[in-house]
Amino acid sequence: MKPNILFIVIDSFQAKKCFGNNKTSVTPNIDSLINNGSYFSQTISAASSTVLSFGSIFTGLYPFDSVTREDNYFKINFEKNIYIKNLIDFGYNAFATVPQIFTFVGLEKIFGKQIQTYESFSNLYNGVGEQILNNLNSKHLEEPWLYYLHLMDLHGNETSFLSDPPSKFTDKKYGINRYDQMISAMDVWLGKILKKINLDNTIIILTADHGADSASWTPEMEKFAQYNIDNRKVEPGTVNKLSMKIPKSIIPFRKKLSVKYREKRNQEIENKITPEMEKIQELDLTPYQKRIMESAVGSIPNVFEEMCHVPLIISGYNIPNKIIPELVSSIDIFPTIAEIVKMPKKDIEIHGKSLLPLIECKDFEERPVYLESDIKSTSKNNIIGIRTSKYKYFRNGDSLINQNLYDLENDILEEKNLATQNLDIVEKMEKILEQLKNKSSIITNQKQIDDDKRKKIQEELKKLGYIS
Question: Does domain 376-441 have CATH number 3.30.70.980?
């Protein structure tokens, strides 16, 4: 009989806050998963943004192949192999509980009517947990099932960089900051969910789409972050209000006004951010501290470890207990699941590969991991890079400027840029990127999003704090 699959993605969960000496949260249920399974301590997300990341997870492909762009928004590339669809064809019943925002990226095409959404800023404590338990108690989850959960408890919104943990968990014994305290709070609900699961016939995956700078913030930094969220808010101006009142029949003029408003709003936000960034540079802080403080002022695309190093637990269903230190990628997760459940292989080319040999202590050839940041409307805003067990190299996506090279064995916080001192290593990294060069661009869908749909997407993005 095929095992069930519970796939949990905790949005913005940084690896060092799941396992290791930097963890200050209290997580008996996450710890139990690790003790009853395999933990991959060097798992790197293919991207430091959500849609690009889970597009890669679902396809086993890097972002430039796994998503398409419609206007400036991303959707899963359905011309590619989708592992969940393959599992459905293999006899699995697939279900999902996800934030409302993800209905815009194509998940409904994967799960059909078996997708349940919740308000994008909700968390396990204000309804999402009950939704999940109700589903696990229902008869709709016919075996073998795959249940995909995307949890937003560690993700902020337009009014706060992080959801407030329940009052019980605000004591320092549950974590040194709000981030760790919320992890402690989440763990209680994860325990309730796991009680409904038979570990003997269920594979449990727990991972993240990307990490978060807020994981490392001190209480003083948290206050600074909140100040900047409040500071960069821009109220809708006359131009925006006017554009929304113009009839759809005059679409070109309406679009011009919308573009004009967005440009004006972005400039106002930039004017508020710049002085705060300058203040940070004057402070007596380490490069790492300055970097995470800058993230409190404004979102800057990057692929540093705090954003790309994610946890990966594969537990249950006779998975052995072990800590696996080899370098792996989030694009390897579904190829691993496919091999564990003995799903027939398709004759397709993917970038990921099964991690089952590592679990079974067999030979496994480590390979470099490709990294990408949150791509905006033009490639000049993108960061691409390569990570090995020893080095990380990245630069601007459209040129050789802003080159960064870090020795991860001796500089885990990535504070000393060695690019100009190690040109031979930079050259080797560039050769790896060159192999992907002809593919490293997002396919653009020529179809344009209508204004109503664009407005709904923007409303959801605003709730999540991605735009002001």
Answer: no
